[in-house]
Amino acid sequence: MKAVIDTGTMITLAGTCLMNVFREFVKTNRIELLISGTVAEESVWKPITNKRFALNAARIKYAMTQQIIKTIPVSSEIARTQQRILQLANNIYSTQSGPLSIIQAGEAEALAIAKINNVKMLFIDERTTRSLIEDPTRLKQVLERRQEAEVSINQQNLNSFRAMFPELKMFRSVDIISMAYEQNLFDHELAHGRLELEAALYAAKFAGCAVSEKEIEDYLSHKSE
To answer: What is the pTM of this model?
Structure first.
């Protein structure tokens, strides 16, 4: 099966030193993992020249050399689909001041690759893109709190956007970590225990994954030593 991974999730897994666990997860589940040339640039080639971020970039680069991750060149078809996604998504929600820009080019490109390659899984830590597909009504409420204003929905644009991804399932780095734990894949990095799972989930949260403490406690309550 195929999956597309976004920049944020890649950086989270590298930054928490869980690339070995992730590599075994990909191998065990026979996932053909795709990233765009833009994600490769953002997560490897730019940061690898910066001493502060070079180690994380090197970890991702190593996964690429092992062919755990396949880079997809940005084609004209991807670029067109990306622009269509941006045009729709960023004209769904609006206030009296105008449309709200809610997704960026990187997320749109990942979605475009998923669409073009008939991919059913997207690994993405960013909350807004997930909510737009999974729960647009809740996203409206979040935006209203954030904007401190009433937000309206362009239902036609929302329907068109969601119709592009009728079967797409999204997973955060914490979901990947939890599934890897269930499959006993921590042996390549950590002991198989509740303490280690909790530590890994919180590391992902602090590295940027959009997950609440309650969600982490829910993960832990369903796991045994």
So the answer is: 0.88
